[in-house]
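seq as requested:
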Amino acid sequence: MRKARAKKLPLAPDPKFNDMLVSRFVNNLMWQGKKGASLTIFYDAIEKVSKNSGENGYEIWKRALVNVTPAVEVRSRRIGGATFQIPTEVRADRKLSLSIKWLVRFARDRNGRSMADKLAGEILAASKGEGGAFKKKEDTHKMAEANKAFAHFKV
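struct tokens:
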């Protein structure tokens, strides 16, 4: 018999905004355990977003996360020798995970001088419903829509 699933440890909120979501984002942004560097990158990006838009950068970042969050995704399932892409709803925790990972990934792929510039650009684009991360969400939704005929195979 399998052992009990490990409990999720609560994250410490970040020092500036006192928000656990920011900590989670910074942890995904971090490379090689350099949390201080990733915190600096995040705060600089939020500052640049607020300077470019004239609004609160933190609120724009939250709006960008909401815009990038997927509602459905496709999962592969083998049935009778054939593999079907079955659309399923995304769990709340996974929604957040995916949106954070997509924002960070597409920010890294952008052209820019520093990571803070790239992240600020991706946040601004996502808040307006543009950019790579938003396109990824749209593609995921289109894929689920195209395969909704197989929804009855759901586990």
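Strands lie at 72-79, 82-89.
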